[in-house]
Amino acid sequence: MIAKEQYAEWRHHPATKFFLQFIKDRREALIGLATEAWLNGNESFKTEGEVDRGRIMELFMIEELQFDVIEEFYKSREVENPEG
Questions:
Q1: H, E, C per residue of the chain
Q2: Per-residue confidence in pLDDT tens, the chain, 84 aa
Q3: Please, what's the b/e burial string for 27-54 (b: 16 or more CB within 10 A of its CB; e: otherwise)?
Q4: pTM for this model (two decimals)
Q5: Which long-range contacts (CB under 8 A, 24 or more apart) does 1-4 make?
Q6: Residue 20 CB neighbour total at 10 angstroms
Q7: Dihedral through CA 49, CA 50, CA 55, CA 56, nearest 10?
Q8: Alpha carbon of residue 57 to chain centroid
């Protein structure tokens, strides 16, 4: 596990900022495509819309991911599986 300060340094690193911008741009592109399909009455929207929504939400979560969420995830895994 890394320290909260190390995570903060990583979040502000130029390569990370570039990656997070890509995540944001990709999410916005997916929203645009989904909106266009919905407005055009595209039949594939009915079957693929939920998948697109899941991708969009996951990208948003990655973009906004805070250290505390990661830390809590690993702490809960330790409680569930104390032997590693």
A1: CCCHHHHHHHHCCHHHHHHHHHHHHHHHHHHHHHHHHHHCCCCHHHHHHHHHHHHHHHHHHHHHCCHHHHHHHHHHHHHHCCCC
A2: 899 999 999 999 999 999 999 999 999 999 998 888 888 887 766 666 667 888 899 999 999 999 999 999 999 988 877 775
A3: beeeeeebeebeeeeeeebeeeeeebee
A4: 0.73
A5: 1/71, 1/74, 4/67, 4/71
A6: 15
A7: 70
A8: 7
